[in-house]
Amino acid sequence: MVYRLIMIFLLIFVLGACEHAPLNGKIEKVGMLVPDTISDQVWGTIGYKGLLQIQSSFNADVYYKERIDNEAAIKLAVKDFDKKKVNLIFGHGSEYEKVFNEICKQYPDIHFVLVNGRADHDNVTSIDFNGEAMGFFGGMTAAQKSHTKKIGVLATHRWQPEIKGFIEGAKYVNSNIEVVTMYVGQWDDSEKAMKLYQKMKKAGVDVVYPAGDRYNVPVIEQIKKDGLFAIGYISDQSDLGNNIVLTSTVQHVDEAYELIASKFDQGTLTGGRQRFDFQDGVIEIGRFSPLINQSFREKVSGLIEDYKKTGKLPNKT
């Protein structure tokens, strides 16, 4: 009798423990931290779109917090998500690298995801986008259209791989073209970006690639007023003016987030780097302006198909 009572007690204890245990490898609730805002029409907006896709695909509760851009704010946000039983957190940028790697051991039931950064633990994953390839084909397009043979990259940081790609793509079309490169230093510093753009315009640049977040749209709007040309960034920005935006270097961050969520839900997501490129359908060149002739469009499309097969850009084959 005593033995039976002990067995019943143990069974109740085990069932109770299972009821409250985390569903390892299964999405419960998903959180996203955004360094700026989800309404910037570029980086924040596309990240939020990815969160909504996860909500729809996995019938999951999702949460987001805006303007989480410092260590104290990140730690408080993660603590709040943990209370809500969130077990997958996306830090929408490289800003979350240090803190995620620092605190991940405190939250073994949460998997942390960030962009373009270091991931040193089993429950931290970094998503890397091959910006060099998309920059290359954007640079080709800019060089093909430029009348002054002087084009500009208005970048945020020197480490952005799309800068190198853009320059090499432009040189592939015209080895004598001049590429003016300036750095804003902050993804959202619209005031500084506009000042640097004005310097580019005075220098004779007629196609600009504003490779940044919040300043991207204001710069393109000014380019439109000045009658110059732009290469869009992150999303297809042809809706800002298809006679202004020659094409866009598109990162389907939303698609990458859904792929990551799917791996997590299947229990196959590992720590470390997850790299995405044209071959994954995550990166592409956006719609071409009607100002870009058909033969050049076909040439770029053919080169992209070759790149998907070989993994080599046309200047490296």
UniProtKB/TrEMBL annotation:
Matches recorded under InterPro entries: BMP_lipoprotein, Peripla_BP_I, PnrA-like
Classification via Gene3D superfamilies: 3.40.50.2300
Predominant place of localization: membrane
Domain ABC transporter substrate-binding protein PnrA-like positions: 27-316
DNA-binding listed as a keyword: no
Topology of this chain in the membrane: Lipid-anchor
Domain of life: Bacteria
Subcellular location: Cell membrane
Transmembrane segments: none
Swiss-Prot/TrEMBL keywords: Cell membrane, Lipoprotein, Membrane, Signal
Record bears the keyword Ligase: no
Family: Belongs to the BMP lipoprotein family.
Protein name in the entry: BMP family ABC transporter substrate-binding protein
Organism: Bacillus changyiensis
Lineage: Bacteria, Bacillati, Bacillota, Bacilli, Bacillales
